């Protein structure tokens, strides 16, 4: 154990003392404080870092608390019974407190530290070594442990590279994080082109944080976007799905979407939707806008949102474009729907690997549109009792709100839900009376409209 040893790299920090910053322990989760104290008491150095420190300095409530330390994953694992080592791109330790998880990472050096091994006088001994690059300069594995100053400089944005310690309650800044925070701007650390080549997802992160925090993206930080956007093609659909989910469920989906288009990055996540929207009428554009706005509103009100609903909305223009194309081919309406839904989902999966549970639910929401519209006497009750009824009903309201003409169908289902048993029976009886069937079918009509 390295008890009482001074922490290498600390001398490079600009130190912000307790009375010069607003962070109070009151605003930090107990579990995170526990981890920080336990690390320090065990001879290591633990720091709160990343979004947690950034958000606390801004007076916002952090989403979660990340901790960085000079203890190795194995050492952390030994200190905390309730921990496990995980890691796809790099090893991290998850410490669980009830439903809360504190993520702890070991200080990592920038991958260039690899080169230092060949230097006659390496700056420091490198404790762990496991790093790899693709031919384009992208980091594939990133497990070179380093000192705190190196850990700071391999982070993405200056405002994400601030450290808070319970030792004298200081904030440490190794770049220009505090200045940029005051100027409310996102600045990438180091050479922008090099940093995006290492990890193109940083471009998406810039946009996500800018929308979330209301920060501008500093000029040199945004300049390479247009030229380097194509590097996003090399990112796995699984990682792009994770990022997409953060974009859509971060509470600022509308702003992020607008910025993704502004910077020409949206095509690497939502190409099918954007393409369909350029050929679509206002209704679909409005439906997508409303779905994003509703998501932000729901999250602001502390309600939950489901990715299945969002993808159902985002892909609605694609699904309907496909249905239009299939309308003159062989097969009945249901077969066309199944085919169009399959194609739509398959196409989107090339960009973002949406887990199956979500695609299955999106498909059900779409399919229920068909049944909600048909109001078949025998199936009204079963539609109503369908586990996905509520989402499908909300989706129906969204379609009406975006201007689709559905003969007050939303109101019908609203009345049906609030009606007592007698009223429900009357409503079922009324719709099942033979109606004059109007054969009106346009290319744009949703699945199952007859
Ligand atoms: P959020 O509020 O979304 O959690 P965050 O800044 O905490 O924001 P995380 O994705 O939780 O973002 O990452 C934690 C920290 O890890 C970041 O603040 C940043 O310092 C670092 N980091 C994350 N992803 C990258 C990346 N792709 N490149 C460099 N540093 C990164
Ligand atoms: Mg975080």
Keywords summarizing the entry:
10% strand, Beta Polymerase, domain 2, two-stranded antiparallel ribbon, 2 domains, binds adenosine-5'-triphosphate, 22 helices, 450 residues, binds magnesium ion, alpha+beta
Tell me briefly what this model is.
The protein is α+β, with helices and mostly antiparallel strands and 450 residues long.
Structural topology:
Elements: E1 14-16, H1 30-41, E2 46-49, H2 51-57, E3 66-69, H3 73-79, E4 83-86, E5 92-97, E6 100-106, H4 113-116, E7 131-133, E8 139-142, H5 148-153, E9 162-164, E10 171-173, H6 177-182, E11 185-186, H7 192-198, H8 201-213, E12 216-217, H9 219-222, H10 225-228, H11 237-248, H12 253-262, H13 267-278, H14 282-300, H15 307-314, H16 316-326, H17 333-349, H18 356-374, H19 380-384, H20 389-401, H21 409-418, H22 421-432
Parallel strand pairs: 3-6, 11-12
Antiparallel strand pairs: 1-10, 2-3, 2-9, 4-5, 5-6, 7-8, 9-10
The structure holds adenosine-5'-triphosphate (ATP) and magnesium ion.
Structure, explained:
With 450 residues, this protein is α+β, with helices and mostly antiparallel strands. The protein has 2 domains: 10-235, Beta Polymerase, domain 2 (2-Layer Sandwich), CATH 3.30.460.10; 285-431, Orthogonal Bundle (cca-adding enzyme, domain 2), CATH 1.10.3090.10. The chain is built from 22 helices and 12 strands. It has helices spanning 30-41, 51-57, 73-79, 113-116, 148-153, 177-182, 192-198, 201-213, 219-222, 225-228, 237-248, 253-262, 267-278, 282-300, 307-314, 316-326, 333-349, 356-374, 380-384, 389-401, 409-418, 421-432; strands at residues 14-16, 46-49, 66-69, 83-86, 92-97, 100-106, 131-133, 139-142, 162-164, 171-173, 185-186, 216-217. The strands form 3 sheets. An 8-stranded mixed sheet has the order 1-10-9-2-3-6-5-4. It has a two-stranded antiparallel ribbon with strand order 7-8. Strands 11-12 form a two-stranded parallel ribbon. Helix 8 (201-213) crosses helix 12, helix 13 (267-278) crosses helix 16 and helix 14 (282-300) runs antiparallel to helix 15 (307-314). The chain starts with 13 loop residues before the first strand and ends in an 18-residue tail after the last helix. The structure holds adenosine-5'-triphosphate and magnesium ion. Adenosine-5'-triphosphate is lined by residues 50-51, 63-64, 66, 155-156, 160-161, 199, 201-202.
